[in-house]
Amino acid sequence: MSPLWHDEVGAYLSPYRLCLVRMQRGVLPQAIAEHEWRFDAAEDHSWSAPLARLEQLLSEEPWRAARTRVVRDDTVKRSESRPQTNGVGWRE
User: Are residues 82 and 75 in contact, defined by beta-carbon separation less than 8 angstroms?
Assistant: First the structure.
């Protein structure tokens, strides 16, 4: 069977939110399950609660037994990895 026909779980993961969508593949792909979970107490940018919840959900129906694609939020990484410099293009 072609890999294009297999079901897939898409996951968006951040310290504040976890979203899952299960797509039934075929000629007309359809979303057959959706789940969104918000983590209100994630002020320390900790990934432990979202990762634990993702692990739990992927072991349950309808999320298991499908290829999983995870998109990770990188806003924290982006802001930490780009120091402000007074270099090219800087106007005083």
Answer: no
CATH superfamily entry for domain 3-74: ATPase, nucleotide binding domain (3.30.420.40)
Domain locations along the chain: 3-74
Strand partners, 69: 10
Indicate the DSSP class of residue 52.
H
**pLDDT number for residue 86:** 55
pLDDT band at 89, cuts 50/70/90? low
Distance, in Å, from the CA atom of 36 to the CA atom of 30, rounded to the nearest integer, reads: 18
Is the predicted pLDDT of residue 15 greater than 70, yes or no?
yes
Separation between Cα atoms, residue 11 and residue 60, nearest integer Å: 14
pTM for the model: 0.69
Contact yes or no for 35/22 (Cβ under 8 A): no
Quote the tokens at residue 44.
Answer: 């320390």
